[in-house]
Known about the structure:
By secondary structure, the protein is α+β, with helices and mostly antiparallel strands.
Amino acid sequence: MARRNLTHVRAGTIDQAEDVLRVPAWHYTDPERFALELERVWKRTPLVLAFSAELDGPGAYKTAEAAGVPVLITRGADGAARAFVNACAHRGAQIALEESGRARRFVCPYHAWTYDEDGALVGILSEQEFGHVDRSCHGLVRLPSAERAGLVWVVLDPNAKLDLDAFLCGYGELLEEFGFARWKLLARRSVAGPNWKIAYDGYLDFYHLPILHKNTIGGSLPNRALYDAYGPHQRVTFPNPGYAALDERPEAEIATQDLLGGVWTIFPHVSIATFDMGTRAVLVSQLFPGASVSESITVQSYLVAQEPSDEERAGAEKMFELLGYVVREEDYATGLRQQRSLLTGARKDVLFGRNEGGGQHFHRTLARLVDAG
């Protein structure tokens, strides 16, 4: 990818699609289309719901909600990560209420039914008075899950089959190069936004950087992009003249981390933006649809490759705050206004130019999945 990037630098070119793509504006506003996206994409596709580093040893757990499904992810005594619907077999109450923690038993706060870290029902309050229940048939509902590249992937449909190799199309091998399993979570927050596709469009779009972000992070950035696709997943980079210096060195002497810059997206909801603030860092944005077609929630997590010094921590925290402002007050504020404009029905289409191949690839992929039934 670096050599391809350098070829474009030397030629003064960028990736360009064959033509401008028109996407119907109602794809961003129609509740029925939104419902189809939830059922045919969000509940069938492996989603990144945790980092391996968050489940640091047996008994560690994390809760999340994705597309309306409450999820509990645990690390078992055998070291394996498992995912369950966070719902008690008795009345469906959520059994784990904290965002994360460590526990070998999960006690439902409603009637104290108890489950172990493998999801088995191990205790029923006043069992003799309640009546006979076959515990083996009333454990937590297991969700297909897998751990790869320091990320935990979960499918929200308990009856689905998870073939992570087929889904990643070789992209997992690239993500492994980051070594995320050893990284540390420094900070996290949630940001409310517009329709999830409006938000996702921005992750694939360098065209807007020197305009919308001229006073924050984008004043000196080019608006030109290169895209490398692996199935539905994409890496976005600038044409980088810095690769010329690497090209003059023996390949064995080039550090992998020098080749991992840019924005790495994981379909349909993750962006990994790379930074170097004295220590290697990434901003991971996990995007989720909201309660309606016009809403979304983005969980932003700032990870660092190693425990930072006090000075590095201060710099990383300052960068995290800046990025929060950029997303909230620039990207998503613009997206929310865009959402209101599209809801008027005045525009029949939105356009993705030949220089916006990442957005074109995303929308074509999404349309194929939704329309396939």
